[in-house]
Amino acid sequence: MSLVTRFAPSPTGYLHVGGARTALFSWLYARKHGGKFILRIEDTDLERSTQESVDAILEGMQWLGLDHDEGPYYQTKRFDLYKEVVAQLLAEGKAYKCFCTVEEVEAMREAQMAAGEKPRYNGMWRDRTDHPTDKPFVIRFKNPQDGVVVIDDMIKGRIEIANAELDDLVIARSDGTPTYNLTVVVDDWKMGITHVIRGDDHVNNTPRQMNILAALGADIPKYAHVPMILGDDGKRLSKRHGAVGVMQYRDNGFLPEALLNYLVRLGWSHGDQEIFSKDELVQLFDLDSCNRAPSAFNTDKLIWLNQHYMKTLPPEQVAKQLEWHIAAQQLDISQGPALTELVKAQAERVKTLKELVEVSRYFYEDFSEFDAEAAKKHLRPVALEPLQAVQANLAALADWSQEAVHQVINATAEQLGVGMGKIGMPLRVAVTGGGNSPALDITLSLIGKARSLARLNHAIEFVKQRSSE
Ligand code: GLU
Fold first, then answer.
1. Per the Swiss-Prot or TrEMBL record, what residue ranges does the short sequence motif 'HIGH' region cover (predicted)?
2. Does the annotation list 239 as a binding residue?
3. Which of 36, 163, 258, 431 can pair with 306 through a Cys bridge, CB separation 3.0 to 4.6 Å?
4. pLDDT tens per residue, range 116-165
5. What is the CATH number of the domain that holds 105?
């Protein structure tokens, strides 16, 4: 029998880090075992579900490369099926109509709380047949009253819940719409889900869902409840901790490879290995080696992974991800180096793709002002002679290659009998506007001859002007 997992988000917000990790674990488990990964949008909460959230979830999944084999299914399109199942349970005596008013249920709860008991529905309509014909009703599942439900959780281990702890759950509201636990059960059953991998905030629903599945004669899937993610401060990860939506990480300049690698390590390990390619993960991932304890988010580690992938992925691949940031920062790259070349020159020097674009404008755009600090330090009267000499030598260069530029700079230092420092920094400030750039030969070769010479002119004028003041 082939393995089927699913990711079943409620579209009430972004695809957040916790959801993305759950999706990743389900995806990996399916891929590892050659199974099927289904995407199911649980949009039955009409008030809180939005199309925007659906789009954000799909976008996030796509950005992370978590492709699904079936779906997306939408629960709102499956109401007829849920109604049929509710009718079937009712017909078989496995569910019943409950005519309690909201006030009655409330009074029941209050009395139980006052008596120090756990508030729960007391089953008062479970066996009654004197049904009124003119009153609204909900439909409740007839939960077994004895015995225990055992979850053999693939992450948390064995969990036992006494049926006496569970009351008769509402499976259809008075307007006939199905409730959350019913829709999940019907879908897991009809979609042939073999492994339910989800956040452990659902662990309380599981025994109820297992009972309903059993009543339907359905196969009970295996369950794996993934512990929650905590923020740096030990509290449950939330908006307070900054970026929570997956696409926010894209916007902040992270590579999907880095975020995926980061997410998988939140709750899963393989010895002390930290770096995993996607292919490697598909081979190595297993639910047995998932952590039972919550894991804490660590932004420094994510940054470290991002730097790793910026440096080690094929530059073409990084360049592809850079395009979005070029557009976001409105940088016109029609004049200047190809993005692949830019990545080769800058990837080692920055933490994120966003930063890469921020510090690379001078490759594409001219500037009229120098960074004040750098100019003050390096475009002084003593820099005039070296700048003029290097400009003359560069102007004579026919082949504007990295090696040729390199030789010219060295030869100029020799010619003037000065150290590289006397030429290098003024030259850097002249062509980039500031004091930070990759090696000069690379920088100049990427900026191009005409632009470099024009900028040198501009710097020479600046120094002259300054000398005369
Ligand atoms: N729709 C639920 C959620 O987003 C997940 C349900 C499940 O995985 O069973 O929390």
1. 9-19
2. yes
3. 258
4. 999 999 999 999 999 999 999 999 999 999 999 999 999 999 999 999 99
5. 3.40.50.620
62 and 148 both lie in a single domain? no
Give yes or no for residue 257 CB within 6 A of ligand 1: no
Q: Are strands 138-141 and 95-98 parallel, antiparallel or unpaired?
A: antiparallel
Ligand 1 mutation pick, 27, 184, 189, 195, max ligand atoms within 8 A of CB: 184
How high does pLDDT run on average in the chain?
A: 96
The residue range of the domain holding 67 is: 4-71+228-303
Contact by Cβ (8 Å): 126, 193: no
Q: Please indicate, yes or no, whether residues 359 and 406 belong to a single structural domain of this protein.
A: no
Report pTM: 0.93
> d(Cα 90, Cα 92) in Å, to the nearest integer?
5
Q: Which pLDDT band holds residue 363 (cuts at 50, 70, 90)?
A: very high
Check whether residue 210 and residue 187 sit in a common domain: yes
Residue 416 has pLDDT above 80, yes or no: yes
Atom of ligand 1 nearest to the CA of 180: 1
pLDDT of 1: 59
Q: Is the CB of 187 under 6 A from ligand 1?
A: no
Helices (H), 313-338: 315-328
Residue 308 lies in a domain: no
Mean pLDDT along residues 398-409: 97
Q: Has residue 183 been placed in a domain?
A: yes
> What's the chain's Rg over C-alpha atoms?
32
In a domain, 309, yes or no: no
Q: Which of 166, 177, 325, 321 is nearest to 256 (CA)?
A: 321
Cβ 245 vs Cβ 11: under 8 Å: no
Q: Is 221 in the pocket of ligand 1 (CB under 6 A)?
A: no
Active site residue 239: yes
How many structural domains is the chain composed of? 4
| Residue with CA closest to ligand 1 atom 6 | 8
Shared-domain flag, residues 216 and 239 = no
| Helix, strand, or coil (residue 72) | strand
pLDDT for the residue 389: 98
